[in-house]
């Protein structure tokens, strides 16, 4: 129960951080760039485009892994719908607050979004339940092409940003979802997470999994994955 609660809360906080970055208007993180580019060009809600982009990531998993695991993909699809719902809800909430009208205010929103996204990622990954489709695709790419996870993520982020930028340039003649905020997010979210993980992950693991033995085993596995 605690594991699921932390997972769902992490996804909600993550969506809140993405919505803050959208409101900042300086460009969203690479992970969300394709969904937001589709929103800007097709007029669909960010929740709908989030689901559609995640379906695309699932399709690419099938292509690269050359296998279909129905239970796994069904779980990812459920997560995608939940995250898409959270995106619509949190963006509605954020838009009730004043829109940043100065560059300073935009950067304040952006900086806050970096920490909120990082907190969401910390909670979502610490729960150690199924990965979201984008992260699962990164793992598949890593395994398929025999490259470390971090390099696979960088490659995936670059491709995502390039596709999102191309879509915006073609349909609305601007970079749209891509901006200085995209670059800042790509660099600093990892740095912030790197600062948070050694300070707070073990505490969260202890709260979720209760026993010290289980916590130690899971923490060791988590560190091994990070160093892979």
Shape: globular
Question: Could you give the distance between the termini?
Answer: 29 Å
Structural class, by secondary structure, is mainly alpha
Q: Radius of gyration over alpha carbons?
A: 17 Å
Helical fraction: over 70%
Tell me the major beta sheet: none
Task: List segments where confidence is low: pLDDT < 50 over at least 5 consecutive residues.
Answer: none
Helix-strand blueprint:
Layout: H1 2-24, H2 30-42, H3 46-65, H4 70-94, H5 103-126, H6 133-144, H7 149-172, H8 180-209, H9 212-227
Helix pairs in contact: 1-4, 1-5, 1-8, 2-3, 2-7, 3-4, 3-6, 5-8, 6-7, 8-9
What does this molecule look like?
The chain is mainly alpha-helical and 228 residues long. It has one domain. The chain has nine helices and no strands. Helix 3 (46-65) packs parallel to helix 6 (133-144). The longest helix has 30 residues, at 180-209.
């Amino acid at each position: 129960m605690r594991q699921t609660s932390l997972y769902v809360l992490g996804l909600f906080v993550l969506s809140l951080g993405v919505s803050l970055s959208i409101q900042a208007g300086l460009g969203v993180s690479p992970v969300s760039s394709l969904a937001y580019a589709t929103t800007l060009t097709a007029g669909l809600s960010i929740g709908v485009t989030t689901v559609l982009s995640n379906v695309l990531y699932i399709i690419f998993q099938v292509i690269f892994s050359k296998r279909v695991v129905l239970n796994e993909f069904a779980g990812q699809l459920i997560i995608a719908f939940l995250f898409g719902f959270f995106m619509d809800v949190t963006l509605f909430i954020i838009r009730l607050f004043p829109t940043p009208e100065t560059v300073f205010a935009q950067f304040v929103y952006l900086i806050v979004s970096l920490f909120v996204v990082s907190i969401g990622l910390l909670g979502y990954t610490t729960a150690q339940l199924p990965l979201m489709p984008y992260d699962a695709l990164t793992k598949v790419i890593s395994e398929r092409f025999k490259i470390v996870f971090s390099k696979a993520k960088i490659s995936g982020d670059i491709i995502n940003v390039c596709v999102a930028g191309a879509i915006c340039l073609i349909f609305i003649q601007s970079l749209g979802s891509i901006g200085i905020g995209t670059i800042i997010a790509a660099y600093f979210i990892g740095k912030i997470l790197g600062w948070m993980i050694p300070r707070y992950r073990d505490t969260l693991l202890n709260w979720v999994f209760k026993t010290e033995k289980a916590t130690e085993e899971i923490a060791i596995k988590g560190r091994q994955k990070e160093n892979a």
